[in-house]
Amino acid sequence: MSGIKGKSGIYIRTKKMRKNMSIARIGKEISKETKLKISKSSTGENSSKGMLGKKHSIETKKKMSISHKGEKNPKWIKDRSKLKKFNDLALDRRSSAYANWRKDVLKRDNNKCKINNKDCKGRLEVHHILSYTNYPELRYDINNGITLCHAHHPRTRAKEKRLSPYFKELVSVSKV
After folding, report:
1. Cα–chain center distance at 153
2. 27 in helix, strand or coil?
C-alpha cells in the first residue's frame, strides 16, 4: 500500500497522491470487488463498527480506569477550593432560612405566577431577581424574590439579566 504511515499505523494518502491515482484510473475498468470495497468505505459501513459486539479485556479496562483517574482526567480541576464554594451554596439552599424565604415569597404572591397570563403552566418556582451567588446580602430579602411558573422562569443568565428590571417592577407593585 502506498502512502504515508501515520501514528496509528494507518497509511494516509495525500491530496496529490489521490489525484495521481484518479488520473491513472482514467480509461481503466474497475472490478466488481473493488467497486464493493469503495462503496463500503465511502458509506462508512466497515469503519463505524469499531468495538461493536466486542468486549475489552480486564487488563484493558484497568488501564483505561487508571488513565482517567485524578489529575490525569481531562476534566480535573486543579484548584479544589472552587468545588467547595458550590457545595456550600447547595447546603445553604437546604437551610431553614432559605425555606422560610421561599415560603414568604410564595405567600406574598398568593401562590401564583406574577406574570399570570395564558402561557402560564408547570410548577411554581421562586426566583431570585438579583443573583443568589452575586448578591449574598439579598439572598433572604423577600423583595429579591418572585414567584414564577416553569414556563416563565428564565432559562439562561442573559435572559435573567434582561428580565431583572421587569421582575423588580412586578415585586414593587405588590409590596406587603
Report:
1. 19
2. coil
With respect to residue 51, please indicate whether it lies within any of the assigned structural domains. Answer: no
CA distances from 163 to 31, 127, 146, 154, 157 (A): 67, 12, 12, 8, 10
Q: What angle do CA 18, 22, 25 make, to 5 degrees?
A: 140
Q: Is residue 114 part of a domain?
A: yes
| pTM as predicted | 0.51
167: nearest Cα among 119, 127, 111: 127
Which domain range does residue 141 map to?
Answer: 103-173
Cell output for 160:
435573567
pLDDT digits (tens, 9 = 90+) for 40-94: 655 555 555 677 788 899 999 888 888 888 887 877 877 776 666 656 666 777 8
Q: How many CA atoms lie within 13 A of 96 on its CB side?
A: 0
Which residues touch 125 (CB under 8 Å, ≥6 apart)? Answer: 147, 148, 149, 150, 153
